[in-house]
Design a protein that fits this description.
Chains A, B: Belongs to the beta sliding clamp family. With 368 residues, chain A is an alpha+beta fold. The first copy, chain A, has 6 helices and 25 strands.
């Protein structure tokens, strides 16, 4: 194989597919990036068997062929080469010569035929969203997946399409995050659970451009994201997702309207008295025009008042401050509305149209 | 005690003195910052018994007094408070109330009288340099101190004043870095060894402003740096510094003139084939108009040629690539000159006036 491409094209492509290279594996071939120049284009692929990414880069194929190169070494070499043309040449023993200007690197490659190709997916049903929207919706929900493997479904996010709405849900047993996105067209009902890892990696690759689109295909066991010159294929998490409808209620006894940034900064300040791993709650006292936030720990105590607009009853309720921070951080509105039932029932942060709903369970602060 | 000052003034002062707070200590009082408002100004002090820093901040003293506050908690509170006026009030039990707008923090302080004050230093002999110069000379030499405590003198830097020259030297047994600074006045001979840690911390505090000056006082066992509203006092390292003159020679058999950036980038690329802890040398072959750099490891091999201007003999010599990179990174000249004797003798990178001299021992690459 002999190919020629610019450093910037190669570096971009390697950066994209590297997201699917596993950090630990017992199969060394999976730690490689496959360069496939057997056909009319140069395709880079990485695949950790759960998540696979391929991308096409511009360049000239002088002699067709393919090679698998250790992803870590290869990407470091590419990154450190001068901003010029890179020539990659392999011999019959998979020895690979990478040259750029006067720099020559020689590394051992692996036969491309050992590489695990991406599974073939029948691409039938698909929806279209902008790169910006997909990147945003992942950011706005990914924080509330569970990091434990004890319940596999909690490590993923529900992607549900109903007519012209895409609903994305994540939950970890203490909170639920829901985002609804209006699609440009109406589609058949689809409901899958996408691994959180896939979504985290894909959001690093997405440009976030509002003008560029992502085609999302739904298959039996896989989801496929196609955008720019890149294809991301991921396994789905099997099983029935949680019935969240029964946990959502529009009843409330107390409704609070508050400046988001003030609330967020206040909780953020309060948490500095809480050491990592300490489950100290923040206690919120809702009065007529003010909300008082208090926290107490071995390090000291803090309290602060914030002006609010309130409807309904006064309330004293405690929360894990991190859960409030996580939700408030991804809401772009200047003012937010919080709905409470009582000190044992979940709090809802949501807008009127319910384009976002964040449900957070309170903590029993007397018991702590 | 009750004092009022702006968040920005307090945050700046706390940031400065925090550099002298030890990360680990058996004496909890040393983990504190002392706020001393007993006299007409507000002075912050931290002291790890080797290094002490005090700085004066602007503010109003409503009621004189002093208090020692845990540096970590106090600085986090200050950092997260709104950009407004901060009021610090203490009671008879050293309970401290920190308020800012509607936020109130209550933390336990310690009696200021338990605090270890900075030692009193007789300030006689001093020199004057700009903040820029001191910050730069530390950056240009600090990388070649030894991090081992087995030879205490190697963990510090020699500061030697002779007439109107300040010479700063660091060495670690494999290399020597020397910088000479021309002073605006002529001074008596002074020769001290300053702990590397002191220099690293002070360089973080220095503004790097070429117009602001630092007064450096030399005392029996201490060195004192005075600048802006800040005083840094450090113990010196005791003992006779190494006689480096006998290691410096102006003889050479090969003299190479080379573009610094090209050389640095080339060595930087080569090191990606060397894993952390692997002492693989870079081998340099000096010919008439080119220098060829080669490196070989289990990961692969790399070679690259760079155009040079050469005087004298051809040479084949090996180096620890990190040592070359460290020295080249802190030289601002576009072109550098390297002087070699033979493959067993040190290489010198220096300018004509010897404002900088970097000596690097070669490695015996046949033996590896």
């Amino acid at each position: 194989m002999k190919i020629i491409c610019t450093k910037s094209n190669l570096a971009k492509g390697v950066g994209i597919v590297s997201k699917a290279v596993p950090s630990k594996t017992t199969m060394p071939i999976l730690e490689c990036i496959l360069i496939d120049a057997t056909a009319s284009m140069i395709k880079l692929t990485a695949n950790d068997m759960e998540l696979g990414i391929e991308t096409i880069i511009e360049g000239d194929i002088v002699q067709p062929g393919m090679i698998a190169l250790d992803a870590k070494i290869f990407s470091e070499i590419v990154r450190k080469l001068p901003d010029s043309e890179i020539v990659i040449t392999t011999d019959d023993n998979d020895q690979t010569l990478i040259t750029c200007e006067k720099a020559k690197f020689q590394i051992a490659g692996k036969s491309g035929s050992d590489f695990a190709y991406l599974p073939y997916i029948e691409k039938n049903e698909s929806i279209l969203v902008s790169q910006y929207t997909l990147k945003e919706v992942i950011r706005q929900t990914i924080f509330s997946i569970a990091d434990t493997e004890s319940n596999k479904l909690m490590t993923g996010e529900l992607f549900e399409v109903e007519d012209h709405i895409l609903k994305v849900v994540s939950l970890d047993g203490h909170r639920i995050s829901i985002r609804k996105i209006e699609l440009k067209a109406s589609y058949d009902h689809k409901k899958v659970v996408v691994p959180g890892k896939t979504l985290m990696e894909i959001s690093k690759i997405l440009s976030g451009d509002a003008e560029s689109e992502v085609q999302i295909y739904f298959a039996e066991n896989h989801i496929v994201f196609e955008f720019d010159q890149t294809v991301v294929v991921s396994r789905l998490i099997e099983g029935e997702y949680f019935r969240i409808e029964q946990m959502l209620s529009s009843d409330y006894e107390t409704k609070v309207h508050i400046n988001k940034k003030e609330l967020l900064n206040c909780i953020d300040r309060a948490t500095l008295l809480v050491k990592e791993g300490d489950k100290r709650p923040i206690i919120i006292q809702i009065g007529d025009d003010t909300m008082e936030l208090k926290i107490q720990s071995q390090l000291g105590s803090m309290d602060e008042e914030i002006f609010i607009t309130k409807e309904g009853k006064d309330l004293l309720i405690g929360f894990n401050p991190k859960f409030l921070i996580d939700a408030l951080r991804v809401i772009d509105d200047e003012e937010v509305t919080l709905y409470f039932m009582n000190s044992k029932a979940p709090c809802f942060i949501k807008d009127e149209k319910e384009t976002y709903v964040y449900l957070i369970l309170p903590v029993n602060f007397n018991a702590i």
